[in-house]
Amino acid sequence: MALLEREDAGGIATLTLNAPERLNALSDEMLAALSETLAGLEDDRDTRAVVLKGAGKAFCAGHDLRQMQAGRQAEDGGAAYFKDLFDRCTQVMLAIRALPQPVIAQVHGIATAAGCQLVATCDLAVAASDTRFGVNGVKIGLFCSTPMVALSRNVPRKQAFEMLTTGEFIDAARAQELGLVNRVVARDELDDAAQHLAASIADKLAAAVSIGKRAFYDQIEMSLADAYAFTGDVMVENLRLRDTEEGMAAFLEKRPPDWSR
Q1: DSSP symbol at 241
Q2: Quick one: CA torsion of 195, 198, 204, 207, rounded to 10 degrees?
Q3: From which residue to which does the signal peptide run (predicted)?
Q4: Residue 40 within a domain
Q5: What is the pLDDT along the chain (261 residues), one digit of tens a residue?
Q6: Looking at the structure, do residues 196 and 88 belong to the same domain, yes or no?
């Protein structure tokens, strides 16, 4: 079976981390599979939303500690391997951000360390009510510095620092309070909830959503004045699309839009 499974339906690509015996750890092989699949999605005009989930009893338990310990056996104590590992993981996280399609994390079981980073990196997240989240590397003497980047951009500063320094888990309800996830549902409703959210996005004009996703992340790093100037230009770009013209006309004429997609 594939390490990363893909299923396509209704403009939604559902990607499943498929290493349940290793709690879907971000092994070297899993990172390679994610990198390859994300690269293929970048120019996939048939896919308008992506759902990322995990097989088995967990979403993702972070990096593969056995591989990390094996890498430590090199003459340099693992320095080159560790640097390469975190570079490759960073590229996967940046690829998710760069995709034109919104990516929804469908989370259950646990999402720890780089697995929690993966949730924080996705544009949206839906979690089962019994999910636990943590950046708990500090408990084994490894501060979760790279997961901190995504986490601290999702969760208020003091709460993120508490999670990082104590290594304690938070539950799904707390994760929603802090802004790490959008929705919390019963475990048996999780698939439907994630697919429903994805379908509500896939139903929209893909070009507009793509423009909006890119602009959302660009403007959030700007000053208020610069953000308004930038997004004004983005609105002009969006308004000049033929399909946006058709969408506005259809709204005024009270009919469904005839989008080319």
Answers
A1: S
A2: -140
A3: none
A4: yes
A5: 799 999 999 999 999 999 999 999 999 999 999 999 999 999 999 999 999 999 999 999 999 999 999 999 999 999 999 999 999 999 999 999 999 999 999 999 999 999 999 999 999 999 999 999 999 999 999 999 999 999 999 999 999 999 999 999 999 999 999 999 999 999 999 999 999 999 999 999 999 999 999 999 999 999 999 999 999 999 999 999 999 999 999 999 999 999 886
A6: yes
* pTM of the complete model: 0.95
Is 46 part of any domain? yes
Residue type, 169: F
What number of residues does the chain have? Answer: 261
Angle at the Cα of 15 from the Cα atoms of 10 and 21, rounded to 5 degrees: 145
Look up residue 216 and give its two tokens: 């959302």
Answer yes or no: do 123 and 84 share one domain.
yes
Helices marked H in 111-189: 114-121, 145-151, 157-166, 172-178
Q: Output phi, psi for 57, to 5 deg.
A: -95, 5
Largest Cα separation within the chain, whole Å, is: 71
Structure tokens, 29 = 């092989």
- Domain range for 231 is 206-252
Shared domain check, 24 and 76: yes
Task: CATH number of the domain at 168, please.
Answer: 3.90.226.10
